[in-house]
Description:
Blueprint: H1 3-16, H2 29-38, H3 44-57, H4 61-66, H5 69-76, H6 83-98, H7 105-108, H8 116-127, H9 136-146, H10 151-157, H11 167-180, H12 199-202, E1 220-230, E2 233-238, E3 249-250, E4 267-272, E5 277-285, E6 294-297, H13 308-322
Parallel strand pairs: 1-5
Antiparallel strand pairs: 1-2, 2-3, 2-6, 4-5
Helix pairs in contact: 1-11, 2-8, 8-11, 9-10, 9-11
The chain binds a DNA duplex through helix 2, helix 3, helix 6, helix 8 and helix 9.
Amino acid sequence: xxxxxxxxxxxxxxxxxxxxxxxxxxxxxxxxxxxxxxxxxxxxxxxxxxxxxxxxxxxxxxxxxxxxxxxxxxxxxxxxxxxxxxxxxxxxxxxxxxxxxxxxxxxxxxxxxxxxxxxxxxxxxxxxxxxxxxxxxxxxxxxxxxxxxxxxxxxxxxxxxxxxxxxxxxxxxxxxxxxxxxxxxxxxxxxxxxxxxxxxxxxxxxxxxxxxxxxxxxxxxxxxxxxxxxxxxxxxxxxxxxxxxxxxxxxxxxxxxxxxxxxxxxxxxxxxxxxxxxxxxxxxxxxxxxxxxxxxxxxxxxxxxxxxxxxxxxxxxxxxxxxxxxxx
DNA sequence: AACTCGGGGAC
DNA sequence: GTCCCAGAGTT
Length: 328
């Protein structure tokens, strides 16, 4: 993309930039960082209400660093990719301890949870450094503008297009274009300020770029969740601090496996993860299984910080208790 | 370079 | 159902 096209895009962005709650003037490094982490593999529509709740509860990185881990993980519950929340806590503590965010891409890159993209995005957007933030939007727009099928190659080709002194603004312009006009499906080329410069458009098939990802078959697994009741309470546990749903509140149960267990379930909840699907069988038991845990009032399950898998499984179990005939 | 790691919105 | 999303960390 030449300088003329970059200026056309920046001019368009001046009038069409999305009004997002983390885009205040001037940019707040804390909110920039928090939004970028929340937005990793997560849509703006999903993030926006969660971001607002989060900054309402913890308005500064110092406040976040001082919060108990369980409360932060609970606030993150339902957003997915929980390593982000664990790294968020570690990063907040490191930043608070050193008296604020580092202001360069290289120093930001050393913080937990900040990879190549996020370090560059925070450096460029919050601190005005000429760092190049290449996300999936930039890759897709570049793939079409340059007519390059390979996503990573397209992203690298976009590096030279970032105008000096305006890298943060340009990254946001590319991201807004990718979200609003140069969408994955049904791109709105007539509304695009750089359609005349677009190779994929000239070829007549913008949607053919970038090349589609190779998809893999998702295996299936089975699991048991113990349903231990005591009056109006249910027994919950905290999962180990790493791995799938690491550190999150959960129903107790053995590790999941390939074979369908023979168990008398009152409910079976099917859940889709990124790389497998799970049938979680909720099985009543008289006593809590051995190990750490706590009795959670069923009327206060919303504040327990359950990830979606267990939140849905609990809902199914409570429904089964009300209507036993519908048990699976 | 390939895998792991969630969940929801849009279609 | 499918595809995709302001990716990072591990192996």
